[in-house]
Design goal:
The strands form 2 sheets. Strands 14-13-12-11-7-10-9-8-15 form a 9-stranded mixed sheet. It contains 12 helices and 15 strands. The longest helix is centred in the last third of the chain and has 20 residues. Helices cover 35% and strands 23% of the residues. Strand 12 and strand 13 form a beta hairpin. Helix 9 crosses helix 11. By secondary structure, the chain is of the alpha/beta class.
Length: 342
């Protein structure tokens, strides 16, 4: 079996983690890293035998000619990186959020579709056993209410605190919870919410919502609320609860362990995986080898719906209005008109 050549655009922590996972798979070569910080790219390249370092994604693509590329860049940097890869027939794994501008996301989606490449978005929770079990249970009985939270301190990297670069906590971090709501509960038809601001005064270059509460309404009438806070130093953690008539499904922790309460005497527990990225990365490699998109739990087009939903929720926070959505894919032009009073 011929080895797959894989390259990385972005050389931060998450790129290292994915690179370690794919390097451990049989017949996979980690061939190159690209980063605007030349020292960081070179440092990571030295950790993988035969890997080269670049400061330009297109130079990396043309020199290495990889079969696939991981895109692990700041949220504002997406667009050209993916489009140039698609033009070269390079399969893509893209860390979320895949865009903070809807027009960029749609242009990349069109390029991916036209090129016929595989493109996976890094919503790793979709690969968890606990999530698979929840989908089985919810297929038998519809949800009534969902309540998710992601509450803790500010992620201490410079770009994260600037909403203009990261998109804000809802778009960059709580997006995992929003994606699980889409995956397990359904496609919202409206969203509204409120944000808290002005509590964080001790961080330089901080431009973010300190906290937010957004509520999504489903066609069935089910409601789902996501609470986000990046201003709480002690932290409270990550979780998602889903309620049906006869079940309570309770995901806890970053690993999303699941407790299912069926009655006062009956429950079920599914422990979450510690390194879910390894399972996600193995599925991506397997999908490329088999040329089988069904092995990917979140394609570019599917992930774009989550990205657009978080952008619509952000519009709702900024405008104070209820945003009506079109089948889970909110048109940003219409949302902007609503926010302006149209």
């Amino acid at each position: 079996m011929a080895s797959l050549k894989i390259a990385f655009v972005g050389a931060g922590h998450i790129a290292r983690l994915h690179a370690q996972n794919v390097a451990a798979l049989p017949d996979v070569e980690v061939r190159g890293f690209c980063d605007l910080n030349a020292e960081r790219a070179a440092g990571l390249a030295r950790e993988f035998r035969g890997a080269e370092a670049f400061t330009s994604a297109t130079e990396l693509y043309d020199a290495i000619r990889p079969d696939a590329a991981y895109v692990c860049v700041t949220p504002d940097a997406h667009g050209v990186i993916e489009i140039e890869a698609a033009r070269r027939g390079i399969h893509l794994f893209i860390e979320k959020p895949q865009c903070i501008d809807a027009d960029v996301g749609r242009r990349v989606e069109a390029a991916v579709r036209e090129a016929g490449i595989l493109a996976s978005i890094g919503y790793q929770n979709r690969y968890r056993r606990s999530v698979e079990r929840a989908r089985e249970l919810l297929a038998l009985e519809p949800p009534i209410l969902a309540l998710g939270h992601w509450i803790g301190h500010t992620y201490r990297v410079p770009w994260w605190s600037d909403k203009r670069v990261s998109g804000g906590q809802l778009v960059e971090q709580s997006t995992h919870t929003v994606d699980l709501i889409r995956h397990l509960v359904g496609e919202p038809v409206e969203v509204y919410g409120r944000a808290a601001r002005g509590f964080v005064k001790d961080l330089p270059e901080y431009h973010n919502d300190d906290a937010s509460a957004v509520t999504f309404t489903m066609p069935s009438g089910c409601v789902a609320t996501v609470l986000s806070c990046c201003a709480n130093v002690p932290g409270y953690g990550v979780g998602l609860k889903i309620f049906t008539r006869s079940l309570t499904l309770d995901f806890t922790g970053w690993e999303h362990s699941l407790a299912v309460r069926k009655s006062a005497l009956e429950s079920e527990n599914v422990k979450g995986e510690e390194n879910i990225f390894a399972k996600e990365d193995a599925a991506f490699v397997d999908a490329i080898r088999a040329n089988d998109v069904s092995k990917l739990r979140c394609t570019y087009a599917d992930g774009l719906k989550t990205a657009l939903l978080t952008l619509a929720a952000t519009e709702a926070l900024d405008s104070g209005r209820t945003m009506r959505l079109d089948a889970g894919e909110p048109p940003p032009e219409a949302l902007r008109a609503q926010a302006a009073g149209g």
